[in-house]
Structures are given as C-alpha cells and as structure tokens.
Amino acid sequence: RCGVCAHRCLVRPGRRGICGVRENVDGVLLCRAYGAVAALGLDPIEKKPLFHVDPGSLSYSIATLGCPFHCVFCPNWAIAQGPRLGLDIPTRRMPPAAVVNAAVRSGARSVAYTYVEPTVFLEYALDTARLARAAGLRNLFITDGYATPEAIELLGAVLDAANVDLKAFDDAFYRPLCGARLRPVLAAI
Hints:
Layout: E1 22-25, E2 28-31, E3 36-37, E4 39-44, E5 58-63, H1 77-85, E6 92-93, H2 96-106, E7 110-113, H3 122-134, E8 138-143, H4 149-156, E9 161-164, H5 171-178, H6 182-188
Parallel strand pairs: 5-7, 7-8, 8-9
Antiparallel strand pairs: 1-2, 3-6, 4-5
Helix pairs in contact: 2-3
C-alpha cells in the first residue's frame, strides 16, 4: 500500500497506483518517475503564485509524469495523465544534482516542484531538495494538497514554501471533476 497520497493505493504486483508512477515490483513500490523530467522552466516566482517569497526572483521549475488527481480542467493533462492514459510523453534524465546545477547556472533562487502534483515524485523531490538547500536555494511545492501526513512530515525538513491549489470547497466538486476528495486536502492545508 502506497503512503504518499491520500488515495493510499493498494498496488498489486506488476501494477501501478492511481498516479501512474508508483509500481509494485516484487513487493517494493518503485517510483518510475525518479529523475525523469517531463517539464522544466525558469519561471518568475509570482507565477507559482508565491508573492511573498523572494519577490522578483526566478524559480527553476520541474515536473515528472503522473498525478493522483484526474482533473477534467488540467492545463498540464498530458504530463499529469500520460502514464494512466498510456501516452508516450518524452522525458529528460536529470539526476538531483543536475537539477540543482541547472538552477544555480540559471540564476534561480529556488527550485519549484510543480506543473503536476509533486508528491508523485516524492523521493526525487526530497533528494533534489536536500541538494538545493545545501546550494543555498529555496524549495517550493505547488501542490494539490493530497499528500499524506507521512509525506508532509518528510517534506517539512526541506520545504521553504508551498502553494496548495484548493480546487473548490465542495466534495461534490472534487469527486467527479478531480477524482479525489476534499477532506484530505483540508487536512493537508
């Protein structure tokens, strides 16, 4: 059983959870998205939108494939739903050190884990965030807020800021339009 997001998927051998990236291989859940960057960008921090964290600075933004939500209105649906839909989305191999080096070279003052729900690549985000912090960079999560308390506990040591995208204040919205529930998001917030 996966403990990263509030779906807490029971992942059968050889299968993946709802996010499409955690696979049960011989009884061990492996993050197939580790180091496989599907999107990257150098964004103004205000685009995250974080207006009170290093205003006017740039954030090196990364995402892998996958998401625990299935929002019908997702602007990044191809990378978010690609694994679940069987789409062949190209990725770029970027170990954590490569992300941090690229962020430093770009002049960014932070690394943002964004574009899809970053808890799907939790292990990769944690390893990258530790190196980013050592390099003097801030770490930012742009999240749907579906992380479990256990995942939030792990992230607490390395995150400097998070923006939780509360989609609506109604479970009747979350269930059919996002494939999720409101209560875990409120608990995470």
